[in-house]
Amino acid sequence: MTVIWIDGEVSPVEEARVSPLDHGLLTGDGVFETLRVYQGVPFATRRHLERLARSAAGLALPAPDRSVLREAMEIVVARNDLDAGRVRITITGGVGSLGSDRADCEPTVIVAGSALVDWPPTADVVVAPWPRNERGALTGIKTVSYGENVVALAYARDDGADEALFANLAGDLCEGTGTNVFVVLDGRLVTPPLSSGCLAGVTRELLLELVGVVEEDIPVAALAQAEEAFLTSSTREVQPIRAIDDRVLPAAPGPLTLDAATAYAELVVRDLDP
Length: 274
Fold this sequence. Notes:
By secondary structure, the protein is α+β, with helices and mostly antiparallel strands. The protein contains six helices and 15 strands.
């Protein structure tokens, strides 16, 4: 029986309820984090909770004490017997009006867990026709407002691909619908800077510390010269890209992708909260 934690109460997921007037449902007013679980332990909890706090502050949402969230995750992981899996924390604006105004009430806090998605060993990606706005009010905030991502991912799936990549308004590579992107150009491992509008992914952050990566703007046109590339996220870890817009890359995984994947895997073995 799958259980879920909502505002301090644990219940079977079939019986769990949030208000139909919750602002997260009505307006997308909320933030979230997804953590991968290894050996019954959510990975990089400190970093994820720090980013959750930054996202909540960006929406002016009060965030629960981190000790409460840690305990909630422990309960969900244990009660769902998640030796390996994923756990998600969601914070919304709570019960609100039918408009954009947020009511003076406590936020809704949800912690849920599930088994892992079975990602393929490599991914085919396409560039979405819609740009990210690197100057938008929600730039850099991990919100539940995922409408653009849903549309772009459906576009990719309709094209037979696994993920869609976004350019930004400047025509530079930004990110995927739920991923950061790394590209090898002229033998250099490069990833877009945060100024591109991409989310500050936790896996991205760890790889910046583990391997030699250059942060610089990458014109979308430069993807045609990519020697290798990969996606990162908490659940995918390091996933090699096989093809970009039907162009098959020379190697998937290439040597720098393998180096990144190995360094990340070794970190997971060494430290579950780096």
